[in-house]
Amino acid sequence: MTTRHTVAPKGQGGRGAYRTIGEAIRAASPGDLVVIAPGTWTEHLVLDRAVVLTAEHGRGSVVIAPPPGDAPAVTVDGPDCALHNITVWGSDAGLPAVSVSSGAGLVLEECSVEGGRVQAKGPEDEEGGTTALVLRRCRLEGARLAGLHLAGGVRARVEDTAVTGVDGTGVVLSGTASLDAVRLRLERTTGSGVRLRGRSRLRLTDSVLAGSGRAGLLLEDATEATAGESRIETPGAAGVHLTGSARAELTDCRIRGAAASGLVVQETARLSASGCSVADAGANGLLVTGAGEADLADCRIDRSAFSAVHLAGTAVGRLADCRVRGGSEHGVHATGEARIELTDCGIADVAMTGVSVLERAVATLTGCRVAGSGAGIGIGSPTGSTVADSTVTGTKEIGVQVAKGATASLAGIRISGAGAAGLVVDEGAEATVNGGWVENCAGSGAVVWTGARPEMSGLRIDRPGKNGVFLAEGAGGTFTGLDVTRAGFPALHVAAGADPVFRHCRIRDCAEALGTDEGAKPVLEDCTADGTPLTFGTPAAAPANGSPGTAPSPRTAKSADDGEEPEEENLEDLLGELHELVGLDRVKQDVGSLVKLMQTVRRREEAGLPAPPLSRHLVFAGNPGTGKTTVARLYGRLLKALGLLRRGHLVEVDRTALVGEYVGHTGPKTTAAFNRALGGVLFIDEAYSLAPALAGNDFGTEAVATLVKLMEDHRDDVVVIAAGYPGDMHRFIGSNPGLASRFGRTLLFEDYESAELVSIVEFQAGQHRYELTAPARTELLALFDAMPRGEGFGNGRSARQIFQEMTERQAQRVAELAAPTSEQLISLEAQDLPHPAAR
Questions:
Q1: What confidence tier does 128 reach under pLDDT thresholds 50, 70, 90?
Q2: Nearest to 388 by CA among 339, 432, 426
Q3: pLDDT, tens digit, for every residue of 47-83?
């Protein structure tokens, strides 16, 4: 049975009240309650038995202030002790205000500890038992050296507690101590936020470590920590720093504004992070040195002052589905003998190289995307890096470079819009290229320097600003199945002493097929230029749209009805083209799933197995300007690449192309439009207009009925996509029983976010050789944020209109300059943006 003991000043508390807290404790039995009247009690308290001390009038009403000396205000020597709603003052900020001895136990609830730390010590081995400490809804403030110090065999739990204003480290764990912290708020420490030493363990959940003078979370020796849904903000050094053989696992954590690197892994430490973000680091986003290892999945690293990811020594980094955006140096930089593996990662807008591999480091890239960086991918290591199924777009300089003496294997790579050459194999480098596409680069598609002898096969080069392939003096190599189209210079240029072998190569619509210097020794086997056999020593075929040696005019687009079959396209290239579209993540996932399903259907058919029931017709539901037509066109090309459509072309129609003006006119009109789409895709924009809410005798219902019959008669030779506003498409599908069974899947095209609209403008700018300044980009984002998203909002169409307006305003501005520089001619400034009122 619990006995209540009252502590009150003389004249208060009634008969039997104790005049000091110490007297009440000495009189209490284990399990008793000591209730303390308001006031400041100057005592050294020793809790040597299981008692509970509580303030009679709630938190802040009772203060325990020790007399002068170096003894703690509260010393706990017994198990199961507790303090509720009590404030404890320390006698010296550098000493313990509350001390829990080895083997003892204490619960602090709704308590404040000021001017001294809470300290708990436990035995160093398990035979000595453990020390237990629990803090709930407490505040520790104004300590020196440490706010909370756990040493030895301490098992502690902290809930909803703040540690603040510490001249030193906020929380220190050493020995074999362990701490489970939930909703810990730690701020304003001159040292690290939390420091682990020895073999201590930490579990951190839903917590904030803010404003530490050094690392936010520091792990040394053989310590371990897990952190989930927590934030580390503006640390004075690294956000999370691992040394020794420490281990840390982070989940859904945010690290912002570290003065040094966001994540640091040194010596033999190991870091695992999932769903985390690192932003605005003063050095690297992730730094791994020594023999450290880091595994990151679904993480973001934004705006690093140095390289976003830097590996050195023999470090290992594995990043999957991660994003790097912005940064003053490289996106990923590997040196020494480090190994970096990147899978399905995106790197955008870094100032230097997206992925840089130097010294004897090794990189493996699979399914990655590099966009808008200074250069794309630079391999400078001889130890053999690989790049597969990856894209490089919109770089200011070279797309992909295999540097002097380096070795690399490239497979299925796509390089688009490089500001210089697309692919460079430098002097003495060894490179293997299997498949891929280089397009719209300002320089040559592929450059091979002296002494390099790459093996390239199945590479497509389209619209290079200069040569398709340029071989310097003494270069060589084998080029098999190479396609070069619409080159502004000779498709193949072979310098003196170069002896490449070209096999089964096709050249089309180029200014000139082959250019050679004296002493060049190319070998041409089964190569053609615009369908004519190409041999060395014979005149090259004239281009289709110009005279020899001149750049061709733009290739005339062939109609879907001219009877010619579209050229074969690679499925992986088409999926890469889909993935490069701004936004549309959900649509990309849905289309990818459809492609996988149809691949399986195709393989079953080829194996002689019956195909499962499958409707290829789709509903595209979304507001105007969300990319529906673009995706529809890609969908047809994908089905053509899968062998499920003969041609894969797109015929776009609306109500006016299907519905007649009088009785008997609609059926033939709809049939004619449908027949133009045979072998491809019929895209019906604003399809809901065929089934108006008040149809009456509307001819649209006849068009729908005709479509249903034609879709059945030609179910294997056409795909119909019905597009329109999300709400209205339900009415359209319900207007005819045959539509619901044929349109079994709806793809939702969501409106673009403001940042995605900015990316669309930047893409348009890159296509037309303009560049947005940083202030222009900031103002453009604000413009989109402020733009009303009503019915008149055009999504991507609005972005393209704004880009056009910017170029027009820039032209007016530049025209007033006497002698504009090249930079002024391509720069789009903030003043070129249309005023919001003009929208």
A1: very low
A2: 432
A3: 999 999 999 999 999 999 999 888 899 999 999 999 9
Handedness of CA 647, 579, 682, 676 (dihedral sign): negative
Contact of 34 with 66, CB cutoff 8 Å: no
DSSP string, 403-423: -TT-EEEEEEEEEES-SS-SE
Cβ-proximal residues to 215 (8 Å cutoff; 6+ apart), any chain: 192, 193, 195, 235, 237, 238, 239, 240, 241, 264
C-alpha distances in angstroms, 401 versus 299, 358, 421, 802? 27, 12, 9, 35
Specify the DSSP class assigned to residue 18.
B
Q: Which helix (H) or strand (E) segment is 167 a member of?
A: strand 162-173
**CA atoms of 831 and 839, how far apart (whole Å):** 15
- pTM (2 decimals)? 0.65
Separation of first and last alpha carbons in the chain = 78
Q: Which of 625 and 154 is assigned the larger pLDDT?
A: 154
Please state, in angstroms and rounded to a whole number, the distance separating the CA atoms of residues 345 and 309. Answer: 12
What letter represents residue 683's amino acid? Answer: F
**Per-residue pLDDT, 229:** 97
The tokens for 324 are 């790097």
Judge whether 320 and 343 are in contact, CB under 8 Å. Answer: yes
The strand ranges marked E within 440-593 are 446-448, 455-457, 460-462, 469-471, 478-480, 483-485, 490-494, 501-503, 506-508, 512-516, 523-525, 527-529, 532-534
How many angstroms from the chain centroid is the CA of residue 510?
38
**Residue 694 exposure: Cα atoms within 13 Å on the Cβ side:** 0
- Cα–chain-centroid distance for residue 776? 23
pLDDT at residue 561, as a whole number: 40
